[in-house]
């Protein structure tokens, strides 16, 4: 059999590249004669640069940026011809904040990455949005590019309270003539019930009262910049970084589609007998711009079966079928939670070997 292995990262344990290799190693134990094509995936979040560089090549440029807490951290730009790829999580990811006080962290480091990309000669900049630990409406990014206001823009979303005037002329001039693309894993607006604070605030350490406060502050931020853009799908991605990119003339594309096109996933899927995907938690949120749903959709269009190997499977058979998935297998159920976290690569390989007994012919 020919099998395409296209997982996302297993957050906190395995990168997408490591997950693909673990699945392949385990599968070969049971079916050594099967041909495995590895295509690690990303939806715009952590691992975005690694996945694209593995498929597209290009040049990695080392950059240092300010993390949400103010300390300096390393980051990279991927230059492919005149296109620069930026992974926002490198500068403001939840691993920098520990999932706490997201309303106090800044996205200024993302602005530094954009500035470096433009200075490197990029005529197109693709920003992967996902896995952020901050929620400042992109104000920090804009500040690093030269925006000014009557409140601090580089002190997190809470500092935007009372904002009345904003000047975006400098950042807009900087990116004039540059195509900006926001590659998002979600399509939420900036504010409201399904906005950045109400939907993702808990993941960034905000209790319900704080979520309501930051939602109000982000609404003020939208009112003095562009309320219409705040309603656009993806404006709420990465704590509002999507909105800030829209303010600079950027356009949204689903991150999974961009990566799938870059790695030629549709063509690969059409050439195999089975597609395998996966992620840390296969749950209801997986249907909204996440890797498993995107891979399953591509497999379905190619009339190929698709299965998922995940840390946890939290959807029923009906939801699974709605996502275009033929079956899903839980790592925790197969080997136990302790081993799943203590030896994620080995455990995932063992699960793949078990699944191969069912699917390899």
UniProtKB/TrEMBL annotation:
**This protein's UniProt keywords:** Kinase, Transferase
Q: Which organism is it from?
A: Nocardioides caeni
Q: Name one GO biological process term.
A: organic acid phosphorylation
- Family listed: Belongs to the glycerate kinase type-1 family.
Q: Which NCBIfam families match?
A: glycerate kinase
Q: What's this protein's name?
A: Glycerate kinase
Source species, domain of life: Bacteria
Q: Which Gene3D superfamilies does the record cross-reference, listed alphabetically? A: Glycerate kinase, domain 1, Glycerate kinase, domain 2
Output the SUPFAM superfamilies linked to this UniProt entry: Glycerate kinase I (SSF110738)
């Amino acid at each position: 059999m020919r099998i395409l292995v296209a997982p996302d990262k297993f957050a906190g344990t395995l990168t997408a590249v490591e997950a693909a290799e673990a699945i392949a190693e385990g599968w070969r134990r049971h079916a050594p004669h099967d041909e495995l094509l590895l295509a690690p995936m990303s939806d715009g979040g952590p691992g975005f640069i690694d996945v694209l560089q593995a498929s597209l090549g290009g040049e990695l440029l080392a950059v240092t940026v300010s993390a949400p807490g103010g300390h300096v951290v390393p980051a990279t730009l991927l230059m492919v011809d005149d296109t620069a790829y930026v992974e926002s999580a490198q500068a403001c990811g939840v691993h920098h904040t520990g999932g706490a006080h997201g309303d106090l962290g800044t996205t200024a480091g993302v602005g530094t990455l954009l500035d470096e990309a433009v200075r490197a000669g990029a005529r197109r900049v693709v920003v992967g949005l996902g896995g952020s630990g901050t929620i400042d409406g992109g104000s920090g990014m804009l500040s690093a590019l030269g925006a000014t206001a009557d409140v601090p823009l580089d002190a997190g979303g809470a500092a935007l309270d009372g904002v009345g005037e904003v000047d975006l002329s400098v950042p807009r001039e900087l990116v004039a003539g540059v195509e900006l693309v926001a590659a998002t894993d979600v399509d939420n607006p900036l504010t409201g019930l399904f906005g950045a604070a109400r939907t993702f605030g808990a993941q960034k350490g905000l209790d319900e009262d704080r979520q309501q406060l930051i939602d109000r502050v982000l609404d003020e931020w939208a009112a003095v910049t562009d309320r219409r853009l705040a309603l656009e799908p993806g404006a709420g991605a990465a704590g509002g970084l999507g909105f800030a990119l829209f303010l600079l003339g950027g356009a949204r594309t689903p991150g999974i589609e961009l990566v799938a096109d870059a790695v030629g996933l549709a063509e690969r899927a059409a050439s195999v007998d089975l597609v395998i995907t996966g992620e840390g938690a296969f749950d209801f949120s997986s249907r909204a711009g996440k890797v498993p749903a995107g891979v399953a959709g591509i497999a379905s269009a190619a009339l190929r079966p698709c299965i998922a190997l995940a840390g946890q499977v939290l959807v029923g058979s009906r939801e699974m079928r709605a996502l275009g998935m033929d079956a899903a297998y839980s790592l925790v159920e197969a080997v136990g939670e302790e081993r799943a976290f203590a030896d994620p690569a080995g455990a995932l390989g063992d699960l793949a070997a078990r699944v191969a007994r069912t699917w390899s012919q």
